[in-house]
Amino acid sequence: xxxxxxxxxxxxxxxxxxxxxxxxxxxxxxxxxxxxxxxxxxxxxxxxxxxxxxxxxxxxxxxxxxxxxxxxxxxxxxxxxxxxxxxxxxxxxxxxxxxxxxxxxxxxxxxxxxxxxxxxxxxxxxxxxxxxxxxxxxxxxxxxxxxxxxxxxxxxxxxxxxxxxx
Length: 166
Ligand SMILES: [Zn+2]
Description:
With about 170 residues, the chain is mostly helical.
């Protein structure tokens, strides 16, 4: 894992972004906590696993059905699967805190509350997808990345009872 300090990546309020073991950071490298490094280390393992799964599936598909040129798209597979997990969480009920944003308000205030509600469900979908759940659940444990089971994120696909606001 290599940390790369810059001013632009990742976008928005995020501090760190992992791309196959290259971690782009807007936080000065000496200020990145051990916990954040462990969190990103878990993402590195996840991305390598998804890359390996994508490679096996692509090799089989290319052998029988498709052009070998499709293998050039392999590096985007981990991010496509991450995006899929994110959007699945976005679409899946329960839609958190709808009451908190809308209950007891007049129509105009309800309309005004929509962007804040959407920002909340967007953030919840980020925190609740199986890859982030695995990383957040274990970033306090210094041993986790050296002892984690292969494809440990799989155990976090089905939400547990600790899901926020469920
Ligand atoms: Zn993360």
